[in-house]
């Protein structure tokens, strides 16, 4: 399992919002859900930065955004305890404005994930783990996972995520995640929930 224990990792600030948004857009441009969300690559490349900027804005307020010092990889976590996270003001309308005629796909994705999210115990939810395409397969994602897992283990906190494909599932399995029941998007691909119990 390749990682970089000495890699500098820091917490993102509002000044990093554009950088992190662009990193997410580039990392997921050809992701497992990309063709289903927006079939046309040029349109996807235009919409994605604005879509991810909305999520980064939310994460900087309500979550934890951890990134490598050189901004080549980022992980967005949400501590989940009781009840849903607060939404950004006017979020549904802002999402619709950004995604346009593809809005229903994005809304379906988010609602389906929400409906299947476990609420039976406090945990940290990994919403996004992204590595710049030029730096993938070099252990950066694994290093970000280990960095956060050390904190979770120290506090006895579980972690939850949804993998989007075989490659992602293998990565998370190597870091202690076990599968939960799979679910599918309406007329779309499957998602693979996984959960990690804290280690003593």
TrEMBL record:
Taxonomy of the source species: Bacteria, Bacillati, Actinomycetota, Actinomycetes, Micromonosporales
Per the record, the domain of life is Bacteria
One Pfam match, given by its short name, reads Acetyltransf_7
> What's this protein's name?
GNAT family N-acetyltransferase
Q: Which PANTHER family match?
A: GNAT FAMILY ACETYLTRANSFERASE, N-ACETYLTRANSFERASE DOMAIN-CONTAINING PROTEIN
Please tell me the species this chain comes from: Actinoplanes flavus
Show where the N-acetyltransferase domain sits.
Answer: 7-199
